[in-house]
Amino acid sequence: GDSVTQMEGPVTLSEEAFLTINCTYTATGYPSLFWYVQYPGEGLQLLLKATKADDKGSNKGFEATYRKETTSFHLEKGSVQVSDSAVYFCALSDYGNNRLAFGKGNQVVVIP
Amino acid sequence: DAGVTQSPTHLIKTRGQQVTLRCSPKSGHDTVSWYQQALGQGPQFIFQYYEEEERQRGNFPDRFSGHQFPNYSSELNVNALLLGDSALYLCASSRRFSGLAGNSYNEQFFGPGTRLTVL
Fold first, then answer.
1. Of A11, B61, B74, B113, which sits 20 to 30 A from B25 (CA to CA)?
2. In the structure, what pLDDT confidence band is assigned to residue A63 with cuts at 50, 70 and 90?
3. Which residue, among B78, B99, B89, B9, has the nearest Cα to B43 in the 3D structure?
4. What is the pLDDT of residues B75-110, one digit of tens each?
5. What is the pLDDT of residue B91?
6. Whether residue A74 has pLDDT greater than 90
7. Which residues neighbour B61 within 8 Å (Cβ) at sequence distance 6 or greater?
8. Which residue among A42, A91, A96 sits closest to B103, beta carbon to beta carbon?
């Protein structure tokens, strides 16, 4: 079935550093791809999405490009802030399905 | 707009008991999905309701059941609780659009979740 793999382990970095979180996927169809963010004690919030190959999703300085050839959707931000500290989840859903498959998530800690 | 709301916020039960969690979708949404998020893991899809019927189901046993009401709100019921059912249960709502190419949905909005602890 469809699945999402995120890089292992938490990510700790200093304020204004460059952030990359890797995400690869396996899907039989042509999925839509998402990044969700979860702040402490809260539910999930959609950060950005891309619905077809080569689409770039962007929001709040975060970007991710749908790469069909490498089945990847890596999340990047050029200069992180302490307020970006959260857990980030990569997810996919097939068209007409609306059923999200999530990766395990990455804890991001930004140190002042 | 209140967004997606869930109740209760926290719940403590013992093994073998039954529990009911509730969800009210965002205004204008007609589809409700439930997810289980174990500690340190990503959410896992349980099932989805539309027009008061279960439309899709993930890999969860029959102990997990649900219901959707005419006002689109939904309940998740878990019977014969196990220690492994301890998790954050998330409800997500969306709106379904039907067209010539099939069904499509807008983005899913998540509620804050219900933290279930089974002792």
1. B61
2. very high
3. B89
4. 999 999 999 999 999 999 998 877 766 667 678 899
5. 97
6. yes
7. none
8. A96
DSSP state of A82: G
How far apart CA A4 and CA A90 sit, in angstroms, is 7
Beta strands in chain A (DSSP E): 3-6, 11-14, 19-21, 23-26, 32-38, 44-50, 56-59, 62-65, 75-77, 86-93, 101-102, 106-111
Distance CA B101, CA A108 (A): 39
Contact of A37 with A87, CB cutoff 8 Å = yes
Length of chain A: 112
| Separation between Cα atoms, residue B29 and residue A1, nearest integer Å | 27
A71 burial via Cβ count (<10 Å: 0-12, 13-18, 19+): middle
By C-alpha distance, the chain A residue nearest B89 is A43
Residue in this structure with the two tokens 């080569």, named with its chain if needed: A54
From the CA of B67, how many Å to the nearest CA of chain A?
17
CA angle A1, A9, A26 (to 5 degrees): 20
CB contacts of A95 in chain B (<8 Å) are 102, 104
Q: How far apart are CA A92 and CA B40, in angstroms?
A: 19
For residue B1, what pLDDT band results from cuts at 50, 70 and 90? low
The predicted pLDDT at position A40 comes to: 85
- CA distance linking residue B110 with residue A44, whole number of Å: 6
